[in-house]
């Protein structure tokens, strides 16, 4: 990996972010669509710059976990509030108006649940996988000033062009534009908040870490709990969605901090945890044969297997991620 060109990790993370968010982490986009280079590039432009900038901010010690949560919320505002406009649609999926927590033309329940997904699945998981893919560069910045500006410019371009589009809300384009502009302003405000929040990170301890098999189970349990939170709770008890989801997000960070903040934590543990997070959605893809979803799952499993093989032959002492590596 020492001879890898500097742009390779950047492109890899951009591709991983799109694949994890749209394919193996959610099955939102059919695998067959990724065979179209234009679709793949568009999704990389949507997910990649945000993941790259989050990673740079973490590695350069510009943010801590409070900032990560703020950036995750900002990205949700961009993706769901501006690009897809799911924040404002009154016909999202099979949810009723009550299940969406709809008030004032905004789907509040959907906002908080999708914020959790985009924070941890769309951003944190790809960053972790990219660090495992390029361990020699895991703690070093990947972007110079020009790269940061390009990523910021791509995000701004996506946000502005989407805000001025009425493609998803054709029935009321003037409302769609106003709502999207508000969501874009919210995203910018959250990014500014992330920059000023305390740069808190877990203290280093000598606490014993869980075995990889246990962490794999933990990741699976987290995803199952999230799916119940997203699909079941809004229909069963919509008034509880926001407080329960906020508690779930806080508990997620607390749990990650507890299991990761140890000198004994290694890449094997990171790989087991993120694999577990993705397992339920990968299993769900097996029933979508018509859109070739199993193909992306198999390919991603091969990639995870490759990562596991590389980590297994790495001396345990040298495989410990330094403190600047995102968990």
Helix-strand sequence: HHHEEHHHHHHH
User: Any idea how many domains?
Assistant: 1
* Discrete helix count: 10
* CA-based shape: globular
Termini Cα gap:
21 Å
- Biggest sheet, open or closed, and with what strands and sense? 2 strands, antiparallel
Provide the spatial order of strands within the biggest beta sheet.
Answer: 1-2
Q: Supply Rg.
A: 19 Å
- Structural class of the helix and strand makeup? mainly alpha
Flag low-confidence runs. Answer: 315-326
How many strand segments?
Answer: 2
Task: Explain what you see.
Helix content is 65%, strand content 1%. The radius of gyration is 19 Å and the shape is globular. 43% of the residues are buried. The chain has one domain (7-319). Mean pLDDT is 90; it is low at 315-326. It is built from 10 helices and 2 strands, in the order H-H-H-E-E-H-H-H-H-H-H-H. The protein has 327 residues and is an all-alpha fold. Helix 1 (7-24) crosses helix 2 (37-59), helix 2 (37-59) crosses helix 5 and helix 9 runs antiparallel to helix 10.
